[in-house]
Amino acid sequence: MKKAMSLVLSVLLIVTIFSACSAGPNSSLTEENVTSTVDAAFTALQEFDQEALEKYVDSKTLDVIMDFAKDHEQFKALGKAIFGSLTYEIKNIDLENKTVTVSVKNKELSSIASNFTRKLLQEYSTLDLLAQLKSDLWLDNNLSVLTEQISAAQMQNEGVEITLSIRQEKKNLVLSFNDEAENAVSGGALSAIKDLI
Hints:
five-stranded mixed sheet; alpha+beta
């Protein structure tokens, strides 16, 4: 009986220790938690970790990419290619206004995104293009070319400062990315595409 009780207590102790270690950032608005949340969010971007992105990042454009990535591995590879070289540095945490300013630098992707989008719009109508996005063969052929171009791109010379709003959820903090922030972390790709569409 004592051995069984010792075993149960040992298991509970181990579970408690691991839970405490793996808890990560929580919803308390402190500089430490904001820093941990920024680290978690940007690591999730770099690795295109969809589960962590859903937890720590609020971004309309990213949500669209992740919706496609749920059904198509090619979009996961594209996400990793776009954000894999992204670097960041926290510049300021403003707890009173619930914001964090981050300097980000990525590969220069505006011209790559612009050229790729322009070519697609010349070849396909909007409806045809939407239909093609469901075809794995089409995605394999086209997105692999795009990811290769992204891999060969040069890093930006200067970082871009963005200010992210911080939202408190039940279990963690969430960083909200507006259009300007989305464009900065995408290496300019977002505005290049929006200018053409």
